Amino acid sequence: MTLQGLKNDKESTVIVGLLAAVSLIIPICNLLFPVDSMFHFSAYTVSLIGKYLTFALLALSLDLVWGYCGILALGQGAFFALGGYAMGMYLMRQIGSRGVYGDPVLPDFMVFLNWKELPWYWFGFDHFWFAMMMVVAVPGLLAYIFGWLAFRSRVTGVYLSIMTQALTYALMLAFFRNEMGFGGNNGLTDFKDILGFNLQSEAVRAILLMCSGGVLIAAFVGCRWLVNTKMGRVVTALRDQESRVRFLGYRVEMFKLWIFVCSAMLAGIAGALYVPQVGIINPSEFSPLNSLEIVMWVAVGGRGTLYGAILGAILVNFSKTVLTGLLPEIWLFTLGAMFILVTVLMPDGLAGLWLRVRRTQSSK
Amino acid sequence: MIPQRILLRTLMVLAIWVVPISVFSETVSAENVEDPESLTFSQALSGLQNSSLSQRGEALEQLSKLQHPRIILILQALLQGQLFQIRDDGRLVIAEKQKSGYQIQLAQTGEKLGNKESSQLKKLNLTNRLRSQLKVLISRLQLNSEDPSLRLKAVKTLSKRPDQQAYTLLRNLSQTETNHDVRQALQLTFALQDLKSADKSRRLQALESLKHLDSVDAMNQVKRLTDNDSDGSYLEPDDDVRKLAKSVLTKIESRRQFYSSIETIFFGLSLGAVLVLASIGLAITFGVMGVINMAHGELMMLGAYTTYVMQQIMPNHLGLSLLLSIPAAFLVSGLVGIAIERGIIRFLYGRPLETLLATFGVSLFLQQTVRSVFSPLNRSVSTPEWMSGSLQINDFLSFTWNRFYILVFCLLVFSLLLLILKRTRLGLEVRAVTQNRNMAKAMGIPTDRVDAMTFGLGSGIAGVAGVALSQITNVGPNLGQSYIVDCFMVVVFGGVGNLWGTLVAGFSLGIANKFLEPYAGAVLAKILVLVFIILFIQKRPRGLFPQKGRAAEA
Asked: Under a CB-based contact definition with an 8 Å cutoff, are residues A185 and A281 in contact?
């Protein structure tokens, strides 16, 4: 059935192919070829591409709610960061007694703050399976509670967007506090290994990249399938005519809630893949600006297409890397200009542009 | 020892004769020599130049006992390090520092002597002991001053270092004093003294009189009476006194709590005023036009930077530049706002989510522009004198002036805006377009122009809010960002399209924040308020004061 969905969709097939190629070739070349070979990709490139892939996953999760359900979520970064923190907590527990203070149980920042014992919410995070469960459970639960409250009382449109922004802002303020027990300002960092393998080693990084690519492809295919199910079609319908769908007898809020929770979980997974590759998670990931940037990726790529989100995330982040490297002042100008130009001139993003080109060609 | 004494005595004798003769002009000296009072005056003055500490102290004491109008001036100059000796002839002068050198006047007579280089003068230095002695002496002299505020200050200084002589002076003063504040200060001093007396009835009486006084000292002293010492026995031996002390303490404490809650309300109101100022501009653009302006915070930032630039243009007129900044900031932000509306937003009407993204792009743009032009560092905007400092009501209650002015300013801006919307043609048109855009258009209202003007008005007010913000926070490129979420919260909480709602919401959020702060800390208080609003919106999606009737259909 999945493949059936892909068959008539040329763009999606191309994207899946490209992603599979990138996530296989880059790590393999990095490992097989010696450093001076022209086919070798540096460790920096590997972690950079890995980062892009997790961002693409995050953008995909936003496209699910924004592109298909019409909810402009300005707090997607919150779910991403929560997933990241869950992973970070597992990685912190793996450090064991190798921290600066050498405490066998407490992470460094807790020793520094004179904490005597591990807070209850840190229990269980020394098991990988538990941490992975939390990576999806915590963002999912938060999205469930928030969405249940918001959709039930029919908070929509701009109000909803601002509420999601307030949510991530409140979380940012909360995680900045040392008393929260998540490392405060500095966040969680200095990770040593994952599942017993050294995080700094090239092989582990290559495998992480492959995982990110694999998860992204799976998520993409899954989302593709999801939006084509009957349920996905109801969601798309309520994006365009919410009251009509309600009058037809569908419980609109349940559909919205369901897609919102799915999207939050995906964002959480993206965060969990992101943290081991960059080696740090701190409260600035919760900042409203970050969440707005995610919206920009999707807007540039074109919402409501899924592959557009992936494309947008990778393109925008690539230009960000290039521009901040060359001319740091230019980046915010570019981002600002992108926001304005994309919304005013091409509301359907690059994907929309591409579809228009293809349509005019086929009509000739 | 002995030769030194002799030397000093000769110096004294010399001072009596030499100073008047050699120093003063003929006529003045003739008068001074004849007048014995002046003689001791100049004698004591020259004693100030003595090298021995104790003699200098004596000279001070002697000076303060003389009835001479210039003494208080001289003592104050000495305290402030403005009393100098001319190196050539040893005359004592009061010197004020000028751009180059000092402008000097003769200490004894106040005769102007023109300017001198600092190398020609020798400063009379003070030790800490002399300085505290000097303060007491000045206060004693000031007890007889005409100005009640000076008397009050003197009473306060004297009661800090109580000695027998000071008490006699204070008792004398209390016979004649008529000013209420000074009388209270005196009463407090005596009561605190009586608390230490061995006589039980005096202690009881003192407690009775302390009951009505709002003073930190009184509270601490009374508290001491109810405390135990390290052995666990009471510091105050008598049961009655202790009982009374306890009841007095609870009285003072409850008054202090009352005052502190008044203060909290004031802080809350002033925080609310900032929120209201920052959000009414948004309430117009967001509420009246249905447009989400994410660049609103940056328009405030532009207002704050306008204040900074105005201050750079005229650095010597702080107050004036601040007042001129208000219209200037209104213009700058208003014009930028109109440009945003004409250039971007008008293509996006009816697509609120897109407006949000586009204006966010504008906000990034403005931020980076400011960063490139003014540097990413914070700029300091100075506060004019009439806005700094605070109004001290009593020991437990004081209001800072800048917060007070912002509160007043906020109410002014709000009423002005209300007036514009209710009483002018623009306001009428704005309301018409808000209620029904198409109908208004059909009636001949130029909706395009109204949109631009409304947006300009909202943005201009954001600029004016920026002027106020520049007085209480750092002016930097991130100024706007830190307020934008709060602004949205206020508007949404108050109910979109309702200026009164914004006012009530701003003030109530401000007060709630300040009341939570002592229990939860500043950050947690903010988080709690945010969570409260998120939950509140679920319950009442249209805010505190939802629009009713025809306006609600829009």
From this structure: no
Which residue in A219, A211, A186 sits closest to A88, CA to CA? A186
Contacts 24+ apart (CB under 8 A), B28-32: B28/B109, B28/B111, B32/B108
Distance CA B400, CA B418 (A): 28
Number of A:B CB contacts under 8 A? 115
What 3-state class would DSSP assign to A56? Answer: helix
C-alpha B383 chain-centroid distance: 10
- B345 min Cα distance to partner chain A (Å): 9
What are the tens digits of pLDDT across the range A87-146?
999 999 888 888 888 888 888 888 888 888 888 999 889 899 999 999 999 999 999 999
Measured between beta carbons, the chain A residues lying within 8 angstroms of B534 are 146, 149, 163, 166-167, 170
Mean pLDDT over residues B198-209, rounded? 78
User: pLDDT digits over A6-33, tens only?
Assistant: 555 788 888 889 999 988 888 888 888 8
Question: What are the DSSP calls for B105-168, one per residue?
Answer: EETTT--EEEEE-GGGEEE----HHHHHHHHHHHHHHHTT-S-HHHHHHHHHHHHHS--HHHHH
What is the domain extent for residue A336? Answer: 2-363
Spatial contact of B508 and B272, defined as CB atoms under 8 Å apart: yes
By the 8 A CB rule, do A307 and B325 touch?
Answer: no
Q: Min CA distance, A144 vs chain B (Å)?
A: 14
Which is nearest to B46 in space by CA: B65, B32, B60? B60
List Cβ neighbours of B524 (8 Å cut-off, separation of 6 or more). Answer: A174, A177, B516
Q: In this predicted model, what pLDDT tens digit does every residue of B130-148 receive, in sequence order? A: 777 777 777 777 777 777 7
| Residue A339 touches partner B, C-beta closer than 8 Å | yes
Q: Among B117, B544, B489, B270, which residue's Cα sits nearest to residue A166? A: B489
How far from chain centre, in Å, is Cα B460? 28
The string of pLDDT tens digits covering residues A27-46 is: 888 888 887 777 778 888 88
Cα dihedral angle (A14, A20, A22, A23), rounded to 10 degrees?
Answer: 160
Q: Distance between alpha carbon B468 and the CA centroid of its chain, in Å? A: 15
- pLDDT, residue B6, reads 62
pTM for the model stands at 0.78
What per-residue confidence (pLDDT) applies to B20?
Answer: 46
* Token pair recorded at residue A342: 């994309």
Q: Give the distance from residue A344's alpha carbon to the nearest chain B alpha carbon, in angstroms.
A: 7
Rounded to whole angstroms, how far apart are CA atoms B551 and B546? 10
B105 CB burial (10 A radius; 0-12, 13-18, 19+): middle
Q: Can you say whether the dihedral through the CA atoms of B145, B147, B152, B154 is positive or negative?
A: negative
Instruction: Give the pair of three-digit tokens for residue A135.
Output: 């990576």
- Beta strand residue intervals within B320-454, DSSP E: 390-394, 397-400
Specify the CATH number for the domain of residue A188: 1.10.3470
Is the pLDDT at B548 greater than 70? The verdict is no
Asked if pLDDT for residue A4 goes beyond 50, the answer is: no
Instruction: List chain A residues with CB under 8 Å of B535.
Output: 149
Q: Give the model's pLDDT for residue B552.
A: 53
Quick check: B278 pLDDT over 80? yes
Classify residue B18 as exposed, middle or buried by CB count within 10 Å of its CB (0-12, 13-18, 19+): middle
Number of domains in chain A: 1
